Amino acid sequence: MLQRLTIPVTAFEQNCSLIWCDETGDAALIDPGGDIPVLEQAVRERGLSLKAIWLTHAHIDHAGGTGTLARTHQLPIVGPHPGDQFWIDGLPKQAQMFGFPQAEPFKPTQWLKDGDEVQLGRCKLQVIHCPGHTPGHVVFFDPTARHAYVGDVLFAGSIGRTDFPGGNHADLIHAIKHKLLPLGDDITFTPGHGPESTFGEERLSNPFL
Ligand SMILES: [Zn+2]
Ligand SMILES: [Zn+2]
After folding, report:
1. Confidence at residue 207, expressed as pLDDT on a 0 to 100 scale
2. pLDDT recorded at residue 196
3. Is the pTM value of this prediction over 0.85?
4. pLDDT 10s digits, 169-194
5. Cβ atoms of residues 7 and 150 within 8 Å
6. Which ligand ends up closest to the CA of 132?
7. 26, 55, 64, 81: which could form a disulfide with 103 (CB 3.0–4.6 Å)?
């Protein structure tokens, strides 16, 4: 079974997820936006073996630490979907705009598309392409733990911004309503910012849906 620890990183309090297979100790970091020493410490403390970086999308608060972390630990970079190439190319500009430390450039080792499966130890997760916040945004769904890592698609009581270049409000709503919520009311999720919630809670009470 996949275990998880949420570690807020950067001035944007972005929820980086440290995930690991409790049978093998293999770990991955989803959206290492920055504060790399804090992330390395969390891996070390638990005696885990860091195997990969997974990205939901390439905004600076989610992807800013990727290049450095991948280089220093020799990690493959999995995701996001190729629709976010222009956001990866624009990381230096994003860093400057939002006052982030300079982000080391990187190339994903493996791009993801809707329906792909990603594996960590003995755990398998499904990849769901959810464009709208960014064109190449993906969600990682763990069908065993009934948990989803949704990045900036959906939040407790809110949804992702769509006013950035390449954003599309209709696409975002469509992805949430037709790809995420049908997975089940019981699904818990880690959003890119703020507290966890469930799809059922959001279906009933999220004012944007
Ligand atoms: Zn974002
Ligand atoms: Zn974000």
Report:
1. 98
2. 98
3. yes
4. 999 999 999 999 999 999 999 999 99
5. no
6. 1
7. 64
Residue 65: per-residue pLDDT: 98
Ligand found nearest the CA of 57: 1
Give the residue ranges of the chain where pLDDT is below 50. Answer: none
Kindly give the distance from the C-alpha atom of residue 14 to the centroid of ligand 2, in angstroms, as a whole number: 6
Identify which ligand lies nearest to the alpha carbon of 155: 2
